Amino acid sequence: MSFEISERDLSGRAGVLRTRRGEVKTPCLMPVINPVKNSIPPRELKDLFGYDMIITNSYLILKHFGSDAPDVHELTGYEGTIMTDSGAYQLLIYGGVETDPIEIVKFQERIGSDIGVILDTPTGGFASRPEAEKTVEETIKRARSSLEFRDDPTMLWAGPIQGGRYLDLVRKCARIMGSMDFQTHPLGSPVQIMEGYDYPTLVDMIVTVKRNLPPDRPLHLFGAGHPMMLAMGVALGCDLFDSAAYALFAKDDRYMTVRGTFRLDRLSELPCNCPICSRLSQKDLLDMPKKNREEALARHNLYVTSSEMRAIRQALREGSLWELVETRSRSHPKLYEAFKRLGKYTNYLEENDPVIGKEPRGIFIYDRRSLIRPEVIRHRKRIIENYSRPVCKEIGVFLQNPPEKPYIRSKEYQDALKILPEGEFHICFYGEPFGVVPSELSETFPLSQYECSQGTGMDVSRDLRKFIRANSYRKVFIIDPGSSIMIEGAMTLRSIEDVRGHLDEDNP
Ligand SMILES: [Zn+2]
Question: What is the whole-number distance in angstroms between the Cα of residue 195 and the centre of ligand 1?
Answer without folding.
Answer: 24
